[in-house]
Amino acid sequence: MEISFSTIMDLVFFSTLVASSIWLFIILTGYEGLIGKSFKLIGWGALVFGFARILEKFLLQFFGSYFGFIELAVHFFEALSFLLILYGFKIFLGK
Fold this sequence. Notes:
Elements: H1 5-28, H2 33-62, H3 67-93
Helix pairs in contact: 1-2, 2-3
């Protein structure tokens, strides 16, 4: 099985996305109180988004025949990550 340039670039970009999400989560969870809670939610949102991107790439590669279900699951995780980030910012701004 030959690995294409596109697959290598996908792995590099997804690894960067996940590493930066984990780094963001580690940096932001050191705070206490409402700010810490909001940063933690934002960090979880970033991690869920990174997970959704990786999930889409590799599930489509191995289970491409279930395209509709995979896309639905990925969109669900993306929406969940967006809601976590929005709720984190809502707590941060105190509104």
